[in-house]
Amino acid sequence: MILEPRNPKYQWGQKVKTLIDLYNDGSYPDFPDEALLVGLGTTGEIVQVGTHTDTNTPIYLIEFTERLVVGCLEEEISPLE
Description:
The protein has strands spanning about 15-20, 20-25, 35-40, 45-50, 55-65, 70, 75-80. The protein is mostly beta strands. Strand 5 and strand 6 form a beta hairpin. InterPro entries: Nitrogenase_MoFe_mat_NifZ.
């Protein structure tokens, strides 16, 4: 079954905040597995918008205030007002 790509809700350069704590899923070898990368309510800026190839869902690369860039799903972030 082929899934149609979902259009992203957010855009490059947009300021966002996290809706959940984000933990290392193994993507960051300099951090222990399951280490907290970014806490709830942390603000950042979208630096790239891509698509997850298996699910055709938007993935947002967000640079957070700690200079850490983390990939997030729409359900994990919200725009800053």
